[in-house]
Design brief:
The structure holds two protein chains of two kinds.
Chain A: E1 4-11, E2 14-27, E3 30-41, E4 50-61, H1 73-84, E5 89-92
Chain B: E1 10-16, H1 17-22, E2 34-39, E3 66-76, E4 81-94, E5 99-113, E6 130-135, E7 140-145, E8 153-164, H2 176-179
Antiparallel strand pairs in B: 1-8, 2-7, 3-4, 3-8, 4-5, 6-7
The chains are: A mainly beta, B mainly beta.
Chain lengths: 99, 188
């Protein structure tokens, strides 16, 4: 579950209530890429919504991570990204199933 | 739109959720993962008889031992994004017990999630597409990709290359237990 909800805050004048890894290359047990924090606007059962980015940044992870706590390297990377931005993860973002 | 063949690769399978749904794949409605099987090209090499003369470098080779490299490109336009993965699939033959076994391992991934829910990244674990061995004898591989909106997902599978008589050239099937001490799970 790579998209996480976070305690709402403001970065660069924009609302942030989610963070996820938007680009990544993974090989050999490591990954490197970019995270994005912002919010999803207009996500309904008929509209996937638009991502409004407040800030992006680079993040890398691996090869070692706590597999008992994180289900994947990406899961661990999003935690590292949240820590980097001083964001508090509150849960997993659950999209609605389109009708 | 993909330019099939334009990059010199061989596309061995593809799926588009619109077509798939209209053929009963996931009943034409939104949601639900797509799943289909495809085969790797082992049918010819499985019939090859290698020379028995030890003067021939091919003697003693077992063509049931194979390694194949494939790549997948999947994309979505509802929860949008792109994903490229490279995989290695290996098959071995164990004389002593279970016969054919195969394993599939992801070796590289590049992903762009334009939407946080692309590729099962919202409520799912974000690991689509997945591959699993359905039948080692025929190297039947099962591919599964995410569903979300009913006509918004597609995938192409490219054959990058393969070889008979690998993973370990020349060792044959007599001593598989110590010649194939790999950590991946092998399926029949």
């Amino acid at each position: 579950m790579t998209a996480k909800t976070v305690t709402e805050t403001t970065i660069n004048g924009k609302t942030v209530n989610m963070i996820y890894i938007k680009e990544a290359e993974s090989a050999g047990g490591t990954m490197a890429g970019k995270y994005t924090c912002g919010r999803l606007v207009g996500n309904t059962t008929t509209n996937p919504g638009t991502w409004e980015e407040a800030k992006e940044g680079r993040i890398g992870a691996g090869p070692e991570y706590d597999e008992s706590t994180y289900s994947s390297l990406t899961e661990y990377a999003v935690k590292l990204a949240a820590d980097k931005e001083s964001l508090t993860i509150t849960g997993n973002f659950t999209p609605v199933d389109p009708e | 739109m993909a330019l099939i063949g334009g990059n010199g690769g061989i596309m061995i399978a593809c799926a588009e959720s619109n077509v798939y749904a209209s053929n009963g794949g996931h009943n034409g409605s939104a949601g639900g993962n797509m799943e289909f099987d495809f085969y790797l090209p082992v049918d010819v090499q499985d019939t090859v008889t290698v020379p028995t003369s030890t003067a021939d470098v091919r003697s003693g080779f077992d063509t049931r031992f194979t390694t194949h490299y494939i790549a997948t490109h999947s994309s979505g336009s509802y929860y949008w994004g792109n994903n490229w993965k490279e995989w290695v699939i290996q098959r071995r033959y164990d004389t002593g017990s279970s016969g054919m076994s195969a394993t599939v391992t992801k070796i590289r991934e590049v992903i762009h999630r334009g939407h946080p829910s692309f590729n099962g990244g919202g409520s799912g674990d974000g690991s689509f597409p997945t591959m699993s061995v359905q039948d080692a004898d025929t190297l039947q591989i099962r591919c599964r990709i995410g569903g979300d909106y009913w006509n918004s997902n597609n995938i192409e599978i490219y054959y990058l290359g393969g070889s008979a008589e690998t993973p370990m050239i020349g060792v044959g099937a007599d001593h598989p237990t110590y010649n194939y001490d790999l950590t991946q799970a092998w399926s029949e």
